[in-house]
């Protein structure tokens, strides 16, 4: 069996490639699809075959997917110069041309139901995969705890937790847990179509209290408006575009778009998921 991974030099993709290599048999082959071939070859050992993986050419992608049985399709990053949906359409079309038999796509929580600036491309991509006729599973990943490292670092350094998400809840889990789950789906005989992957739901107040406890730091919580939150990011050195994006994150969390968590992550990983405090310690590199 040959399994290919898109975006193989990214954080999620590189972990997936390495985990697949460690879990598959010697008869199986892991293929890293990468835009930067030279970079990929320095990241992986010779047992990993590296093939061109830029999203701008359907024909090149199809050639790179030749002989591939299963594809881990990691959603790309939004790009104003190269729309994400164009990238995703190219990947799906290439998979069809290459006769890929199964796709695991990393999607957004409840992508078919929620309506926010992050969900639209995922909803469209899921629809395209469904229409392709290729067997598939959607790994709808909630929120990586690592996404909020700046928030946590602010508590550790200054003892202040600033957010505008109110009492909205998030199903935080470590990125590696989502990677492990996606790799499991690639190895299942009969996976279901949709997996809502998440940790247990917590608020930013609970996250702040956990960070303060494990770092033994004093804590001052400041629930602020979106404009005040953005200003706090700008004051911390964020550029305006990134600050605006983080405000969007706070808004969708406040609206409850990440609050509906399921047990799929725990089921797929046989309950081998670290608890919230352990995960926070991992992100902060605290023993």
UniProtKB/TrEMBL annotation:
InterPro entries: NAD(P)-bd_dom (IPR016040), NAD(P)-bd_dom_sf (IPR036291), NmrA-type_oxidoreductase (IPR052718)
Boundaries of every NAD(P)-binding domain copy: 7-148
Leader peptide range in chain numbering: none
A Pfam family assignment: NAD_binding_10
Protein name: SDR family NAD(P)-dependent oxidoreductase
Organism: Weissella viridescens
